[in-house]
Amino acid sequence: MAGRLEGKVAVITGGAGGIGSATGQLFAEEGARIVLVDRDTAALADVAARIAAAVPGAALVTLVEDMGEEAASRRIVEATIGAFGRIDVLVNNAGIRAYEPLAVARTETWESILRVNLLSYALLTREAIDHLRASGRGSVVNISSTHAVNPRAGMGQYDVAKAGIISMTKTLAFEEARHGIRANAVCPGLTLTPFHVRRAAEAGRSRQDLDDEAKGGCLAGRWADPREIAYPILWLASDEASYVTATAIMVDGGRFVT
Ligand SMILES: NC(=O)c1ccc[n+]([C@@H]2O[C@H](COP(=O)([O-])OP(=O)(O)OC[C@H]3O[C@@H](n4cnc5c(N)ncnc54)[C@H](O)[C@@H]3O)[C@@H](O)[C@H]2O)c1
Predict the structure, then answer these.
(1) Residue 258: pLDDT above 80?
(2) Domains of the chain
C-alpha cells in the first residue's frame, strides 16, 4: 500500500527535537523523502540513526543550521533541491522557550524568540515558496501552541510569537491558495519531550510531579506523546487534507475545557 506522503519531499525544522523527530519518522514511514534541520548536531545525528533503523531505506538528509540566521533559509532550500529536486511540504517547527514575566522581559529575549519562533517561519516559507507553488499541492504546517489562544503568566514572549504564527498562517493561506498551497497551524498542548524531563529534573521535580501537572491540565489528563502531535501534522501535510487551509488545529487533550 502506498504511503500517505508517497512522492513528496518534506522539510522539517527543529527536526532533532521531540515533535520534529517524531514527525520526521512518521513522514519517512509514510513514504516522504525528508530533510531534517536543527542546530543541535549531536541530537540530529542520533535522530537520523534512529529513523534509519526504524524505517529501512528512508530517504533522509540532515542539515545543521541555526534558524535564527537569515541566510539559513536559502541554504536549506538549496540543499533540499540539490538532494531531492522538489519541496512539497514545509513543517516550521523549530522553537525556543523563555520564562520572563513582561515586567522584566529583556529586549534580547524578545528579539531571539521572535527571530527563531516567528521570523524563521516567515523566511523559510518565503525562500521555499516557488518550489511549494511548483508542487501544485504545497502544504505548510506551522507549529504554534495551545497558548497562542490561551496565554498564561510567565511566557509572554513565547505566547506572543505563537499567536503571531496563527495569524501569519492564515495570511499565507489567503495569499497562496491560488497557487495550490495550503497553510495550517497545529497547536500542541502538553507534549512530553526530553526537554521537559530535563527541565523538571533540574528544578528537582520528578516524573510523578510532571504526570500530576498533566492530570489537572487537560481533559485527557496526561501528557501527549510527540507521535500524537505528529499524526495531525501528517494529515495536514497529506492530500487527505486537501480541503483544509487557513485553520489552526488544537492538539492539546482538551486543555482549557477542564
Ligand atoms: N512540547 C510541548 O509541550 C509543546 C507545546 C506547544 C508547542 N510546542 C512547539 O512545538 C515545537 C517543537 O517543540 P518540542 O517540544 O519538540 O521541543 P524541543 O525542544 O524538543 O525541540 C525543538 C528543536 O528545535 C531546535 N531549535 C531550537 N532553536 C533552533 C534554531 N535557532 N535553529 C535550529 N534549530 C533550533 C532545538 O535544537 C530542538 O531540537 C516548538 O515550536 C514548540 O514551541 C511544544
Answers:
(1) no
(2) 9-251 (3.40.50.720)
